[in-house]
Write a structure and sequence with these properties.
Blueprint lengths: L1 H9 L24 E2 L14 E3 L2 E10 L20 E5 L12 E3 L15 E13 L9 E4 L2 E2 L1 E6 L2 E7 L5 E4 L7 E10 L12 E3 L2 E2 L3 E4 L9 E8 L4 E8 L3 E5 L4 E5 L4 E3 L13 E7 L7 E5 L4 E4 L2 E4 L2 E2 L2 E5 L13 H13 L4 E3 L7 H10 L2 E5 L23 H15 L5 E5 L8 H13 L5 E2 L12 E4 L3 H8 L13 H9 L2 E6 L10 H10 L3 E6 L7 E4 L5 E4 L27 H9 L3 E6 L4 E6 L9 E9 L2 E8 L9 E5 L11 E9 L11 E10 L17 E3 L6 E4 L5 E6 L6 H4 L6 H7 L5 E10 L3 E10 L5 E11 L2 E11 L9 E9 L4 E8 L12 E8 H4 L12 E4 L1 E5 L6 E6 L6 E6 L3 H6 L11 E10 L22 E10 L6
Parallel strand pairs: 26-27, 26-33, 27-28, 28-29, 29-30, 31-32, 32-33
Antiparallel strand pairs: 1-10, 2-15, 3-4, 3-6, 5-13, 6-12, 7-11, 7-15, 8-14, 9-10, 9-12, 16-17, 17-20, 18-19, 18-21, 21-22, 23-24, 24-25, 34-35, 36-37, 37-40, 38-39, 38-41, 41-42, 43-44, 45-50, 46-47, 47-48, 48-49, 49-58, 50-57, 51-52, 51-54, 53-56, 54-55, 55-58, 56-57
Helix pairs in contact: 1-4, 2-3, 4-5, 6-8, 8-9
C-alpha cells in the first residue's frame, strides 16, 4: 500500500472518478487527489542544515471564487498600490483578521452535500511574501514545509509551481531547490476555503481557512538524513531496552547516557538496564544520529523506551495496565483560532498535569508537532487521531460517504500516512486513531491495514464502526454510568452489527473498553464525574475515558459598547450554524479553568484518601499506574467551625503503584466545641517541571465531631421584634436595619446547557411543559398567633392542576426571626423533576461582601460538589458568579451552615443560619435575577441592579451532561416530595453579631 499512497501524493488532477460530470478533469481543489508535487511523508525534524522561518506579515488578497486571476506570480509579487491587497499575519486565519467571517457547524457541512464538488462561491485567499536567502545556502534539495493550511492550496516559488495539497492539519513538503535563487525570492500561495478535502474535515469546530501553522524553508546538505524511525522497546521483566533506529541513509547512533557511541543505524542494540518512559515518569534519553558522509549536522534524538501492548484484554504499557484519565483537545485560541503558539501548548499541558489529567486524544486531527514534543517531555499519554471525519453525511443517511467509496481511498491513505510518518518517533503517542465519526467503510479498513503494517508497535482505535474489526478497543461515546459498569463486567448486549457474527462478536468482547468521549463539558457541568471514575477504576477491562472537551471554542469580540464577550455559532451571521455547541470545554476560551475542571481534577485524583474516624484509620490508595508515592508529602489540618485548630504531617512511605497502606489516625487535640473536620492533603514534595513543591494533588475530609445541637426555643423572646411582615401576603418587608424582602418560593433556575439537553433528551422541555417557569401564587391566609405568624399559599401554573402548597412559619427567637418553610407537592406530577426547591429574598446591593461556613470555595451542585470542601470562606458577590460564555445557573455554594451578607462601609447586613434540624442549605447570591440570567445570550447583557438576589435552597436538580449524553443519575434527580427549610434570619450591625 505504500506504493498506492506514494502515487496518490504525486498524481495530478483528474484521477479516475474525480472529474466533472461532462468528463473534463476536475480542478485540483475539487478532485480526489490528495495533492501534487509533494515529497514523501517523513518524521518532523530539521534536515541537518539551516532553517528559515517564513512566518510574519504577508500580503493578502481575498477573492470570492477559486479561479481568481493569477496576477501576483511575477517578480515582486502584487503590483504596488493595488488596493485589493493588505497585510496579513501568518500563521493565522484570514477570517479572524477582518476578511470574511468564521463559520461554526457541529455536524452539518456549510455547503451542499455533493461530493467531491464545492460551491462556485469559494472564498480564496492569495498570499505573497518575499524573503532573502542567507548567504551560502545550498540550493539543491531545499525543502519548503507547510505544517498546516486549511483547506487546499497551491504554491509557487519565484513564479514556478511547486505543487498542491489537501489535508488541513497535516504537513506538506515540496522540493524548492530548482526554483530557489540566491538573494531575494518571491513565495506565493493560493488557499481555497472549500475543497474536496473539506468533506473529510467535518470535525465539530470553526471552519477557519488560512495558513495557520508554520511555514519553513529547510536547507538540505549533501548526505543529510531524510527520515528515521526510532524503535525503542522496554522489557519490564528484565528492565532492559532494545533500540533500533532505521534511516534512509547510512548513519551512526550515539546515546552518551547509555554508553552508546557510533552504533550503526538499522542494527538492533540490546541495553541491559534502561529507565522506561511513561506519562508518570517521562524519562527521555538525549542522543543523535550522524550521517556517515556529507556535511549535514546530526539529527537530535529524544528516545523514550516503552512497550505498548494489549494483554488479556487490558491496555498495558511496559507490562503494566494503564488507566487513561483524559481529555479531548481541539487546538483553539480565542484570538488566533487554531494558530496556537508554543507558549499556549505548554500552558495547556501544565494545566492538564496540575489537574491530574494523564492523557490527550488529539480530537480530531494531529496537533501541531511541537505539542507532541511537549507531551514527550512533560509526560502525557496520547491518542493521535488522523485528520478524517465525514460526520455531515449523517444528514444524507450516509449515502455517498467517502469512507466506503474506493475513489476516495488515496486521500484516506495519504492522511493516515502523513500522520504516522510525522509522529512515529514520539514515545507519548501510544495509540493511533483512524479518525472520528465517519461511519464505516472499506477505506477505513485499508487505512487500518496500512497502519498495522507500518507500525505494529501501537494499537489502533476507531469508535464508529461497531464491528470494531479495525480497532483494538471496544469504544463508545457518552455511555451512561450503569452501562459502563455492565461493559466492565462483560455483560453488555452485543451491537446489532456483530449479533449475527459470532467470531467478530467474540473478538469484540475480548477488547479493552475505551470511552473516547464522555462528560460533555458544556456550560455548568458535567455532573457525575466521580461516579464515572469509580466505575472505570472498578473493572480491569476499562482502559479509561476522555472528557469532551478541553476548551470552549469562543472567539473574542466586543459589542457596540466596547464590552468584551466570546462569540459562538451564529454570532457572525453565519448560517447554517451549530449555535452554542462549540462552548463545551473544561476551560473558558481565555483558558480560565471552569468549575468543571476542578470537579474533574478531584474525580481523577491519583491518590485515594479514606479517613475513617470510627476505626481510627486513614487508608492511602496509590492510583498511579507506575509511580510510587515518594514524590508526595502528606499533611493534615484540624478545623472547628472553619477555624484552624491544629496541623501535622503523616508518615506515608513509598507506597507502590496500585497498592494501599493504612495509617493510624493522628492524635487530635480536643479543641473548642463545634463541628470539627479533619482534612488530609497530598502535595508535591519537590518541584516538578509542571508544578512547584506544595502543589496539591489530592485531598480528603472527614467530620470527626458533630456540631452541638441547637436548643429549641422556649418562653418569650428576650429582644424586641426585628422584622416587619406585610399584613396581606405575609412577606417580610424589613429585618432590623436591612431592607430585606421575601421569601418567595423558588423552584426555577436559569436553564443550564445540560438542562436544555439535546433533542428529546431535554429536562427543560418537560419543565416548561409542566409550567414550572410560570407559576402563579394564591395566598390562602395569613394567621397571626401569639408566638407565630403562619402564611399559607399555593403556587401552580396556568391551565394545569398540579401545584405546590407552601407554609411559611415565622417565630421570633432572641434577636432573630426564625423561618420554617414547608413545601408540599399536590396533584399529578407524573414523575416530573424540579429545578430547585427553596426560597429567595432581595436586599440592597451594597451588602455585597459574603462570608459563609459550608462547602467552597467554588460552586457546587449535587453531582459536582465532591470537588468542594467544608470550610470558612469569603468573597464579594461579583466573585461568586461563574461567567459562563452562555449565561445560565451558576454560583451555588453547597452545604452551607451559615452565611453573612455585609455592607463593607457600615458593617450592617444579614446573617442566615440553619435552624431546627440544622440541615445545611444551598446558597446563591447574584446581582441580577434568575429571569435576567436566563434572558441573556452573552455576559455583557447582564447588568447589576440596585438589589441583590439571595437564593436559599434545600435541594437542586443535578447537572448531568445531557447537552450530549445522559442526564443526572437517579440519585441526583430532584423529584417532588415534601421539603422543609429551617432558617434563622439575623440582622448584623447595630449590636448584632459581627
Amino acid at each position: 500500500m505504500d506504493a498506492e499512497v506514494g502515487a496518490a501524493r504525486g498524481s495530478g488532477a483528474g484521477r479516475p472518478g474525480a472529474g466533472q460530470r461532462d468528463g473534463t478533469p476536475a480542478p485540483y481543489w475539487a478532485d480526489l487527489s490528495p495533492g501534487t508535487g509533494g515529497l514523501t511523508p517523513r518524521a518532523h525534524f530539521p534536515r541537518g542544515g539551516r532553517s528559515l522561518a517564513l512566518g510574519g506579515t504577508w500580503s493578502f488578497r481575498l477573492s470570492p471564487a477559486a479561479d481568481a486571476p493569477l496576477d501576483f506570480l511575477g517578480p515582486g509579487g502584487p503590483a504596488q498600490g493595488d488596493g485589493d491587497w493588505s497585510p496579513l499575519r501568518v500563521p493565522g486565519h484570514w477570517v479572524l483578521q477582518g476578511h470574511g467571517i468564521p463559520r461554526y457547524t457541529n455536524t452539518a457541512y456549510p455547503f451542499p452535500i455533493d461530493p467531491p464538488h464545492v460551491p462556485d462561491a469559494n472564498p480564496t485567499g492569495d498570499h505573497h511574501r518575499t524573503f532573502h536567502l542567507p548567504d551560502g545556502w545550498r540550493l539543491p534539495g531545499t525543502v519548503l514545509r507547510f505544517d498546516g493550511v486549511d483547506s487546499c492550496f497551491k504554491v509557487w516559488l519565484n513564479g514556478r509551481e511547486l505543487g498542491t495539497s489537501k489535508g488541513s492539519r497535516l504537513p506538506s513538503e515540496f522540493d524548492a531547490g530548482q526554483a530557489l535563487r540566491a538573494g531575494r525570492n518571491d513565495l506565493a500561495v493560493r488557499v481555497h476555503r472549500w475543497s474536496s478535502g473539506s468533506y473529510l474535515e467535518d470535525q465539530d469546530m470553526w471552519w477557519l481557512p488560512g495558513i495557520f501553522r508554520d511555514v519553513t524553508l529547510l536547507e538540505v546538505p549533501a548526505g543529510a538524513i531524510g527520515d528515521h524511525f526510532v524503535h525503542a522497546s522496554y522489557d519490564h521483566g528484565r528492565g532492559s531496552g532494545t533500540l533500533r533506529v532505521d534511516t534512509d541513509v547510512p548513519a551512526l547512533l550515539s546515546l552518551p547516557e547509555l554508553g552508546v557511541h557510533g552504533h550503526p543505524a538499522g542494527r538492533a542494540l540490546h541495553l541491559p538496564r534502561v529507565e522506561p518512559w511513561s506519562a508518570e515518569n517521562p524519562r527521555l534519553y538525549t542522543g543523535e544520529l550522524a550521517p556517515v558522509s556529507g556535511d549535514a549536522a546530526p539529527v537530535r534524538l529524544r528516545v523514550g523506551f516503552r512497550t505498548v501492548a494489549i494483554r488479556d484484554g487490558r491496555f498495558t504499557v511496559n507490562g503494566v495496565p494503564v488507566l487513561l484519565r483524559g481529555v479531548n483537545r481541539h487546538e483553539h485560541d480565542p484570538d488566533r483560532g487554531r494558530a496556537v503558539t508554543l507558549d499556549t501548548m505548554r500552558h495547556d499541558l501544565v494545566l492538564m498535569k496540575r489537574h491530574n489529567i494523564n492523557a490527550v486524544r488529539t480530537a480530531h486531527y494531529p496537533p501541531h508537532p511541537d505539542f507532541l514534543a511537549l507531551c514527550d517531555e512533560l509526560g502525557m499519554w496520547v491518542v493521535d487521531e488522523c485528520d478524517i471525519e465525514t460526520h455531515g453525511f449523517i444528514h444524507a443517511d450516509w449515502a455517498g460517504n467517502p469512507a466506503d467509496d474506493p475513489r476516495w481511498r488515496p486521500m484516506f491513505l495519504d492522511r493516515m500516512r502523513r500522520t504516522v510518518e510525522r509522529d512515529k518517533n514520539h514515545p507519548s503517542v501510544v495509540i493511533w486513531s483512524l479518525g472520528n465519526e465517519s461511519h464505516h467503510g472499506a477505506n477505513l479498513g485499508a487505512v487500518a491495514d496500512w497502519t498495522r503494517e507500518r507500525d505494529p508497535s501501537r494499537p489502533l482505535h476507531y469508535e464508529r464502526d461497531r464491528t470494531y474489526r479495525h480497532s483494538d478497543f471496544y469504544s463508545l461515546m457518552y455511555t451512561p454510568v450503569a452501562e459502563v459498569d455492565r461493559i466492565g463486567r462483560h455483560e453488555e448486549d452485543a451491537p446489532a452489527e456483530t449479533a449475527d457474527e459470532p467470531g467478530t462478536e467474540q473478538r469484540r468482547r475480548r477488547l479493552p473498553f475505551l470511552l473516547c468521549e464522555y462528560a460533555h463539558a458544556m456550560g455548568n457541568g458535567p455532573g457525575s464525574l466521580a461516579d464515572y471514575q469509580r466505575v472505570l477504576e472498578s473493572h480491569p477491562r476499562c482502559a479509561g475515558a476522555f472528557v469532551w472537551e478541553w476548551i470552549d471554542h469562543g472567539l473574542r469580540r466586543t459589542d457596540g459598547s466596547g464590552r468584551e464577550y466570546f462569540a459562538y455559532g451564529g454570532d457572525f451571521g453565519d448560517s447554517p450554524h451549530g449555535g452554542t455547541f462549540c462552548i463545551d470545554g473544561l476551560l473558558f476560551p481565555d483558558r480560565t479553568p471552569s468549575p468543571g475542571l476542578d470537579a474533574y481534577k478531584k474525580a481523577i485524583e491519583p491518590v485515594g484518601i479514606d479517613i475513617e474516624p470510627d476505626v481510627g484509620r486513614i487508608r492511602i490508595r496509590n492510583r498511579h499506574d507506575v509511580r510510587d508515592l515518594s514524590h508526595l508529602r502528606f499533611g493534615w489540618t484540624l478545623e472547628t467551625d472553619g477555624v484552624h485548630v491544629a496541623e501535622g504531617e503523616l508518615g506515608v512511605g513509598p507506597v507502590a503503584a496500585r497498592r494501599e497502606t493504612d495509617l493510624a489516625l493522628p492524635a487530635l487535640p480536643a479543641g473548642p466545641a463545634g463541628e470539627t473536620w479533619l482534612t488530609v492533603r497530598a502535595v508535591l514534595a519537590a518541584d516538578e517541571p509542571w508544578a512547584p513543591a506544595g502543589h496539591e494533588v489530592a485531598w480528603a475530609q472527614s467530620r470527626v465531631r458533630a456540631a452541638e445541637p441547637r436548643p429549641a426555643p422556649g418562653g418569650r423572646p428576650t429582644a424586641p421584634a426585628v422584622g416587619t411582615l406585610d399584613e396581606h401576603t405575609g412577606l417580610l418587608r424589613g429585618l432590623g436595619g436591612v431592607d430585606l424582602t421575601g421569601p418567595y418560593l423558588d423552584i426555577w433556575r436559569a436553564p443550564t446547557d445540560n438542562d436544555r439537553g439535546m433533542g428529546d433528551n431535554s429536562v427543560l422541555r418537560r419543565w416548561r411543559a409542566a409550567g414550572l417557569d410560570r407559576l402563579v401564587v394564591r395566598t390562602e391566609g395569613v394567621e397571626r398567633r401569639p408566638e407565630q405568624v403562619l402564611v399559607r399559599s399555593r403556587h401552580a401554573p396556568d391551565g394545569l392542576s398540579h401545584g405546590l402548597r407552601t407554609q411559611y412559619t415565622w417565630t421570633r427567637e432572641d434577636d432573630a426571626l426564625r423561618l420554617t418553610v414547608d413545601i408540599t407537592p399536590e396533584g399529578p406530577w407524573d414523575g416530573l423533576s424540579l429545578p430547585r426547591a427553596g426560597v429567595r429574598f432581595t436586599l440592597p446591593a451594597r451588602h455585597d461582601r459574603v462570608r459563609w461556613y459550608g462547602k467552597g470555595p467554588g460552586e457546587a451542585y449535587p453531582d459536582s460538589e465532591h470537588a468542594a470542601r467544608t470550610g470558612l470562606f469569603a468573597a464579594d458577590v461579583a466573585s461568586l458568579q461563574t461567567s459562563y460564555v452562555v449565561p445560565q445557573e451558576n454560583g451555588r455554594r453547597a452545604a452551607v451552615r451559615w452565611a453573612e451578607l455585609v455592607d463593607p462601609a457600615t458593617g450592617q447586613g444579614l446573617r442566615v443560619e440553619t435552624a431546627g434540624s440544622g440541615r445545611p442549605f444551598g446558597l446563591t447570591v447574584r446581582p441580577w435575577s434568575s429571569e435576567e440570567l436566563e434572558a441573556a445570550a452573552h455576559p455583557p447583557e447582564l447588568v447589576a441592579g440596585d438589589r441583590l438576589h439571595l437564593h436559599v435552597d434545600v435541594a437542586q436538580h443535578g447537572l448531568g451532561s445531557a447537552s450530549c449524553g445522559p442526564g443526572p443519575l437517579e440519585e441526583h434527580l430532584l423529584l417532588p416530595q415534601p421539603w422543609r427549610i429551617e432558617l434563622l434570619l439575623r440582622p448584623l450591625g447595630s449590636g448584632g453579631p459581627s
